[in-house]
Amino acid sequence: MRILFVAAEVAPIAKVGGMGDVVGALPKVLRRMGHDVRIFMPYYGFVPDKIDVPEEPIWSGNAMFESFSIYEAVLPGSDVPLYLLNHPTFNNRNIYGGEDEDWRFTFFANGAAEFAWNYWKPEIIHCHDWHTGMIPVWMKQSPDISTVFTIHNLAYQGPWRWRLDQMTWCPWYMQGHNTMAAALQFSDRVTVVSPTYANQIRTPEYGETLEGLLSFISGKTEGILNGIDTESYNPETDKYISHNFTADTLDLRRKNKIAVQEEVGLQVSTNTFLMSMVTRLVDQKGIDLLIQVIDRFLSYTDSQFILLGTGDRYYETQMWQLASRYRGRMSCQLLYNEALSRRLYAGSDAFLMPSRFEPCGISQMLSMRYGCVPIVRRTGGLVDTVSHHDPMNQAGTGYCFDRYEPLDFYTSMVRAYEGFHYKDYWRALQQRGMRQNFSWDKSAVEYIRVYRDLLGLPPEESPSSQSDEVVATGVG
Ligand SMILES: Nc1ncnc2c1ncn2[C@@H]1O[C@H](COP(=O)(O)OP(=O)(O)O[C@H]2O[C@H](CO)[C@@H](O)[C@H](O)[C@H]2O)[C@@H](O)[C@H]1O
């Protein structure tokens, strides 16, 4: 099958959060499974710092009364062709934000449609989040190109209809309120990045005002759990961490703890409970809950906490102030740093993820992969990936709480803190997390099933289409 992935983020070239992880990993796996998968993304100003891009474009086109050119490169560490849409609007060094964000990504989506019509024609365009939402609208006119739209984050829905009318001069094509709604209506299939979140978004609590539409299209919607790039994120080979280790050599892991404590200026102590968080600092991630409990937790215990993240100014300031009160015990790194994130996964004892909502969550899987025990709120994909620690039955991979309440989060942290002091149980807990299979292979099979179904092909005979504990799909 010929499949074009279109997205605003592609790891390791352009990543802000988990969508970049998905688009940087899934095409590699699908290609290995024999499909001609290619990626289309913006040519951001920083791309040449990350990869080699040929000087000459391969194609030029027009969209929304502007011309653009396409450069072809390769996704690092793979043979996946990467098409880069070049236009001055993407010269800015930030992926998101700015006054022209609505125009920029609407133009990007329209450029991708032009590319698919005129240069490389795929059978399926796999679109990711609102930035690509206009593609399914356009492709409705092209019965020979089908569309799959994946919701990574319903909280961001793109420009509203009146603005789209203004920008594209085509008022007739959509009924939806905004780009995300249009994509949901017009795409042939909709996937959501975890089965639990796929069900949750049909309720007012999680639907972000689109719950009616999402219930209406439940017949073409399903949840397919994300995986992680287990080659890149492998504690046995990761070049960014100071000491490589496996589930069988966990003793080596403590050296990473020392290294990261030194790196961010905490008191070095392997017996101290070290928690961390790597996150966008936004409401979704439960930062308000964290702010309500972390001060007390640090003052009642001898534990340590490292935060790595950027986002809302208010949260950045609050966290910064807290860190200044706990010198040597709390560190606040207000930056985006891929290498440090890996060292935190590899060196911390526990990873905090008290999300208000979580479509899937990549960070908790990365933390388990590196032997860092997740403490999570049981919502969305966190339900599907983390199970509560049950020492009596030697089961579970983390600490879970249900209600979005500071006391519940606090209690989970206390339990983890206590658990950490029972070394054998803790080690077994770490090992269970590390031995989970979060590889993309299984989810990729689910996507192939969706693609084949869309093209009217019979399901592939594949042993991996058997279900297992990690990949579950919830067909609407
Ligand atoms: N300051 C920083 N420095 C370095 N690395 C940082 C960082 N801040 C975040 N990251 C990295 O970004 C990724 C975060 O991914 P998540 O899936 O956990 O959340 P996100 O909300 O961004 O993704 C959205 O899309 C994904 C993909 O579908 C869903 O899993 C998720 O629920 C949804 O909210 C991780 O790889 C993490 O290490």
What would your notes on this structure say?
By secondary structure, the protein is of the alpha/beta class. 37% of the residues lie in helices and 18% in strands. The longest helix is centred in the first third of the chain and has 18 residues. The C terminus is likely disordered. The structure holds adenosine-5'-diphosphate-glucose. The site of adenosine-5'-diphosphate-glucose (ADQ) has 27 residues, from helix 1, strand 10, strand 11, helix 12 and helix 13.
Summarize the structure.
Helix content is 37%, strand content 18%. The protein is an alpha/beta fold. It is globular.
Number of helices: 17
Radius of gyration: 22 Å
Q: Mean of the pLDDT scores?
A: 93
**Order of strands, widest sheet:** 3-4-5-2-1-6-7-8-9-16
What is the terminal separation in angstroms? Answer: 25 Å
- The fraction of residues in strands falls at 15-25%
Which geometry do the CA atoms define? globular
* Biggest beta-sheet profile: 10 strands, mixed
* Uncertain stretches: 465-476
Helicity, as a percent range: 25-40%
* Category from helices, strands and their pairing: alpha/beta
The number of strands is: 16
Which molecules other than protein and nucleic acid are bound? adenosine-5'-diphosphate-glucose
Keywords: Glycogen biosynthesis, Glycosyltransferase, Transferase
Catalytic activity: [(1->4)-alpha-D-glucosyl](n) + ADP-alpha-D-glucose = [(1->4)-alpha-D-glucosyl](n+1) + ADP + H(+)
Function: Synthesizes alpha-1,4-glucan chains using ADP-glucose.
EC number: 2.4.1.21
